[in-house]
Every structure is written in structure tokens, then in C-alpha cells.
Amino acid sequence: MKFLSNTRLLLLGLWLGAAVFFSFAVAPSAFAVLPSREAAGAMVSRSLMIVNISGLVIGLILLASSFAGTLAANRILLWAERILLIILPAACAIGLFIGTFWLPSVKAQMGRPIDEVAVEDPLRIQFNNLHEYSVWVLVLGIAAALIAFFMIAGKTSATPAPKTGSTDFDFDKEFKI
Q1: Domain ranges, ordered by start, for the chain
Q2: Reported pTM
């Protein structure tokens, strides 16, 4: 059971790390370094697609694994964890839909680079609103994953260690010189 909890924590931690790294390093760096905003947007869109697909898959795996070995678990905490693990893949699925299908469709309707479209243009306003929704959905997914991470970690650390006699460490016995 501890192996399952540790594996779940590892998967959740990997996705959290990727999502946070994308949010604070990849996206800002792409727009700061690449020569055009179009190229940066394409790179960020592709990277975000990977983050969303991995969050969708990992979230579903974690949700399915939450049903294993739950006989002695606190039901309220277990269902709170499951709700958070439903929010994670749902947020990733919504972000994937917005970023992979809806934003490119709006951008294609513009017919030119987004920087050349007037700020008050309805398509530009729609693009900006969709982008903002995408950001907030990712923040929701990160928050749900972070809370679930601490819930799983707390459950793992609350499990008492088996008693094997003395808890004192005997240096001489362990490291014979």
C-alpha cells in the first residue's frame, strides 16, 4: 500500500513540477527569447498541449488508483481527494480543448498575426478571453493537484511504521570496522 501511495505522489509531483515549470519558465521564456510572438505562441501552445494531455492521463490514473485499498480510509477525506482528482483531469481536458481547438480556430479566423489585429476587434477580444480562461483552468488544475498531493502525503505519513524492537540506531552493529 505504501508503494501505491508513493507512486501516486510521484506521478502527481511530476505533473505539478511540469505544470509549474511550464507556467513560470517555459511560457515567459518563449516570449522573451524567440524572435516572433507567433513562434513563441506556437511553442507555448505545443508545450501546454503536452502538459494538459499528461495531466489528463495522470489524473485518470490517480483517480482509478484511489479505489484501491480504501477499506480503512476516512470516507470524507477519501471523497475529497477523489473530487480533487476529478478536477485535475477535467481542468486539463478543458484546457486542451481551449488551447488545441478553440484558440487556433479563432486565430485562423483573424487571418494575420495577432499583434496586427486591433485590440478592440471582436476576434481579438474573444482570443484574449479564451486565453484568460485557459490560464485560470490551468491554475485550477494546479491548485487541485497541490491539495491532493498534500492529502495523499498526509495519509501516507499518518500510517504507523511497523515496530521492529528497539528504535535506537547502533552504529557499531551497522558499520563494523
Answers
A1: 2-28+39-159
A2: 0.82
Environment class of 159 (CB within 10 Å of its CB; exposed 0-12, middle 13-18, buried 19+): exposed
Q: Torsion over CA of 48, 55, 138 and 83, rounded to 10 degrees? A: 170
CB 124 within 8 A of CB 109: no
Nearest by Cα to 147 from 72, 91, 94: 91
Alpha carbons 26 and 13: distance in angstroms, whole number: 18
3-class DSSP string for the chain: CHHHHHHHHHHHHHHHHHHHHHHHHHHHHHHHHCCCHHHHHHHHHHHHHHHHHHHHHHHHHHHHHCCCCCCCCCHHHHHHHHHHHHHHHHHHHHHHHHHHHHHHHHHHHHCCCHHHCCCCCHHHHHHHHHHHHHHHHHHHHHHHHHHHHHHHHHHHHHCCCCCCCCCCCCHHHHCCC
pLDDT, mean of each 10-residue run, the chain (177 residues)? 87 96 95 92 94 96 87 82 96 94 92 89 94 96 96 72 58 63
38, exposed or middle or buried, with CB in 10 Å at 0-12, 13-18, 19+?
A: middle
Write out the three cell numbers for 65: 488508483
